[in-house]
Write a structure and sequence with these properties.
By secondary structure, this protein is α+β, with helices and mostly antiparallel strands. It contains two helices and nine strands. It has one domain. A hairpin with a 5-residue loop joins strand 4 and strand 5.
């Protein structure tokens, strides 16, 4: 299964409304909250998706432009072969964070503020 289809499946899973008290997410579909959970969620071969612990601490990560964002509480952990991903909702958007992008709270607090500067043109 390609990484693109994995992300599509995870987005579909994570786009389920959290505020709907009548339904609870169980991989493979929506079922009433009093239904017995399945032993193992169905996942494509080589891909593992697990819900994060309800008491998981917030995570911080580095963006491509060098900014460190967070904290965001993990919702799901995904493993595709040797790659590990954390799914979070941050500022209303679902984000998938690869494990090598994770950073510490200390790095988040000590980062320099990004300032836009105007290009100085030569004479």
């Amino acid at each position: 299964m390609s990484q693109h289809s994995l992300l599509d499946k995870a987005r579909a899973i994570l786009s389920q409304p959290k505020h709907d008290a009548e339904l609870a997410f169980i991989p493979g579909g929506l079922t009433p909250p009093n239904a017995a959970p399945s032993a193992s969620p169905p996942a494509p071969e080589g891909i593992q998706i697990e819900p994060a612990a309800p008491n998981a601490k917030g995570v911080y990560w580095e963006m491509g432009d060098g900014r460190i964002l967070g904290p965001a509480v993990p919702e799901f952990f995904l493993r595709d072969g040797e790659e590990y991903w954390i799914s979070v909702t941050f500022e209303g958007h679902i984000r998938f964070i690869r494990d090598d992008r994770l950073r510490s709270r200390k790095a988040f607090l000590e980062q320099r503020e990004v300032k836009e500067v105007e290009l100085i043109r030569s004479f």
